[in-house]
UniProtKB/TrEMBL annotation:
Subunit record text: Monomer.
Family: Belongs to the class-I aminoacyl-tRNA synthetase family. Glutamate--tRNA ligase type 1 subfamily.
Domain Aminoacyl-tRNA synthetase class I anticodon-binding per the UniProt entry, residue ranges: 372-497
Record-listed ATP binding positions: K263
CDD domains, per database record: GluRS_core
Keywords: Aminoacyl-tRNA synthetase, ATP-binding, Cytoplasm, Ligase, Nucleotide-binding, Protein biosynthesis
Function in brief: Catalyzes the attachment of glutamate to tRNA(Glu) in a two-step reaction: glutamate is first activated by ATP to form Glu-AMP and then transferred to the acceptor end of tRNA(Glu).
Protein's recorded name: Glutamate--tRNA ligase
Length: 507
């Protein structure tokens, strides 16, 4: 590409960052890195009434946890700063007045009550009120009013807004990198407010001005902004600026495929919709996060990348470096992407296997009081045996508790299945054999017991099922010989003796 690629992620700090926003940030990041470009974070906080304390820090923390940090933004490489729109508000009025002077915008003095009366009047006639070419000449604005009256109102401090003057009878030809060519009849467009009476710009003006001043080359954003594309392109044209290339990402849909994914869906179906846990500063309500629920950042990146994009192959596992290499906007889908919480678990199970055992062991130890005095190196050996059956760290204790505590009870169905008339005799003999094994390695245990079973023509299950029951308290768990090796000879013999006592007392 001829221009240095610059993209931006521009969230509003009105609460926690939804995973739809994380996906938008991810796609911007992938595109920027693929083209050796710059990923910019801009905080769009012009609507101060919706500002939520802590939301900006949450956004930054979420991006960092996902390993998709911004290159430029608040407090970081502020080449085109400031990067909070509230700190740039002194810029926008001049640009709004520039549009007035060029005839592309006008002052409007209509009160909200007057506009509501017009809306009600239109509704009673079965019509929809749109403030545009059709009626702006009859409304209270600088198009319909004499210039001296307009200047008097402004000088007098009357409330006003600045509206864009959408053209009449034109066809706009727009291009979207995902959706292709789009045509819009300007007659159906309303004259959007660009500048408000409180001295702050609306999203539309601030967005365009900032993208231009920050030299943004590609705007990759959610589908919900597609209806604004016509106005934004017209604003670029009105200013005489080169517009960036636009790409509008598909919606993330509910698991049912019907409607946009919301926090309510996550609460109802039992999965998070935010990357990190969030505590509402006003209500103290806590919303779950993927990090706290035990998901790995690699999971989130891989999972979100496939919500609306695919590489055109059967490959589903991509690390961040591979995604940067393979990502292509032309392979982003137009239709909505159905959110599948089970697929997120599938990815997490995969990335669980790639985690370092020592790191997992440290986290596991920290999460369970029962492991406080256990050597972390021993825990790491246990983790290596069980993690193939784990999806989350929370699964570890259920899969491994018998490595750390002697079973106190036996699962009823397992006991009935494993214990036969001759089980006590067999286990007693097994106990003697174990006693005589000097090298208590997995290999020695396995070879000795299997040789004895074969030589005595005993069914393998008649030995291994009750032995597993003695060790685990159930018929679940990793390889029996691994368990025996890790818990050691003395503990193995202790557990066999306990089962023998239980068998004896049950007869």
């Amino acid at each position: 590409m001829s221009d240095q690629v610059r993209v931006r992620f521009a969230p509003s700090p009105t609460g926690p960052l939804h995973i739809g926003g994380v996906r938008t940030a991810l796609f911007n990041y992938l595109f920027a890195k693929q083209h050796s470009g710059t990923f910019v974070l801009r905080i769009e906080d012009t609507d101060q009434t919706r500002y939520v304390e802590g939301a900006e820090d949450y956004i930054v923390s979420a991006l960092n946890w996902c390993n998709i940090p911004f290159d430029e933004g608040p407090g970081k490489n502020e080449t085109y700063g400031p990067y909070r729109q509230s700190e740039r508000k002194h810029l926008y009025k001049a640009f709004a007045e520039q549009l007035i002077n060029s005839g592309h915008a006008y002052y409007a003095f209509d009160s909200s009550e007057e506009l509501e009366l017009h809306r009600n009047d239109y509704e009673q006639k079965g019509k929809t009120f749109i403030y545009n070419w059709h009626n702006r000449g009859k409304l209270k604005n600088s198009i319909s009013l004499p210039n001296d009256e307009v200047q008097h109102k402004i000088a007098n401090g009357d409330d006003y807004v600045i509206r864009f003057k959408s053209p009449q009878g034109q066809t706009l030809h727009l291009t979207d990198s995902i959706r292709g060519n789009i045509t819009i009849d300007t007659n159906i467009l309303d004259d959007k407010v660009l500048f408000k009476s409180d001295g702050m710009p609306t999203y539309h003006l601030a967005n365009i001005v900032d993208d231009h001043l920050m030299k943004i080359t590609h705007v990759i954003r959610g589908e919900e902004w597609l209806p604004s594309l016509a106005l934004h392109q017209q604003l670029y044209d009105a200013f005489g600026w080169k517009a960036p290339q636009f790409a509008h990402l598909p919606l993330i849909l509910k698991p049912s495929g019907k409607g946009k994914l919301s926090k309510r869906d996550g609460d109802k179906l039992g999965f998070p919709v935010f990357p990190l846990q969030w505590k509402d500063p006003k209500t103290d309500e806590i919303s779950r996060g993927y990090k706290e629920d035990g998901y790995f950042p690699e999971t989130m990146v891989n999972f979100l990348a496939f919500l609306g994009w695919n590489p055109g192959t059967e490959q589903e596992i991509f690390d961040l470096e591979q995604l940067v290499k393979e990502f292509d906007l032309t392979r982003v889908h137009k239709s909505g992407a159905r959110f599948d919480p089970e697929k997120a678990k599938w990815y997490n199970h995969h990335y669980m296997q790639e985690q370092n055992n020592a790191d997992l062991a440290a986290d596991f130890k920290a999460s369970k009081a029962e492991l406080k005095d256990i050597d972390v190196n021993y825990i790491a050996l246990v983790v290596e045996l069980i993690k193939e059956r784990a999806t989350f760290l929370d699964d570890f204790w259920g899969l491994s508790h018998f490595f750390f505590t002697t079973p106190a009870v036996y699962e009823e169905k397992a006991f009935k299945k494993a214990i036969k008339e001759d089980t006590a005799v067999i286990l007693t003999e097994v106990d003697k054999i174990i006693t005589d094994i000097n090298d208590f390695s997995k290999e020695a245990i396995e070879k000795t017991l299997k040789t004895w079973i074969t030589e005595n023509a005993i069914g393998f299950g008649k030995v291994m099922m009750p032995l597993r029951l003695a060790l685990v308290g159930d018929l679940q768990g990793p390889d029996v010989f691994d368990i025996m090796f890790l818990i050691g000879k003395a503990e193995t013999k202790k557990r066999i003796a306990l089962l023998l006592n239980t068998i004896a007392s049950s007869n």
